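One example given next:
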Amino acid sequence: MLQKNSVYCGDSAKLMKEIPDNFIDLTITSPPYDSLRDYDSFSFDFYKIANDLYRITKDGGIVVWIVGDETIDFCETLTSFEQAIYFVREVGFKLLDTMIYAKKSYAPAYPNMKRYAQTFEYMFVLSKGKPKTFNPIKTFKEVRSIIKNEKVSTFRQKDGSTKPIRLKADSLKKSECNVWVYDVGFNKSSKDKISYEHPATFPEELAKDHILSWSNENELIFDPFAGSGTTLKMAKILNRDYLGFEISKKYTSIIKKRLGFKTVGEFKKENIVSKNNNFASQSANAEDIIHVNISFNLS
């Protein structure tokens, strides 16, 4: 039986059929895109997964879809935008924001590519209706002068002139913009050395920032392409429930080590209880998780 606070090894397109309607608060995921990585020789059915993501997402829930494009014959494939358009025009999501995940460190572009180095990925923030949760990340404004707990600044008028203003102390912070920059690479994206056995892990801070922005404690965070388990790990740390699917046994092994799982199984359709027979609401203990093939003993 599917349980919260669990990871399942299997095909997301099949496993997602077992999740009840309107069940997930927030999905954060980065699917394999184009052929930029040999994802252990696996592929996925985007269209099935896109439609099921809408079905299982609660009204007001969010899907953060993190993708990029391959360059072929000096041209970007535009796969990322095609997916975003499908999510909106065919599935029913609203495109709340097109955010940018930028990397401080990056590999230089090959000279024969005739282009600048690629340093960012898209983060399409998709909403099922009006977002039910938004906890904006706040950063301090640049403060050049503060008088009696006030910041002295200027405001550009409609005619182009500037007008001095004073901001109260509670206005000294501002919401972060939609371009998020992270230091990436070994021992930067994560301190978990084992996570780098996955070819495309994203920063723990990125997952943390999205979880804090679009969800509250005890809500359910989902990742259908769990990879090295970054989304699941940060959900656990931030007191959220989590659910992850990962098709690769090798990568599922990485996840269980990062989350402290002692056992993990392989998905078989006949061993999954239908969503019509009630999704298990209780949290599984990391000590005895046995997902998902319960037809044999797991060490």
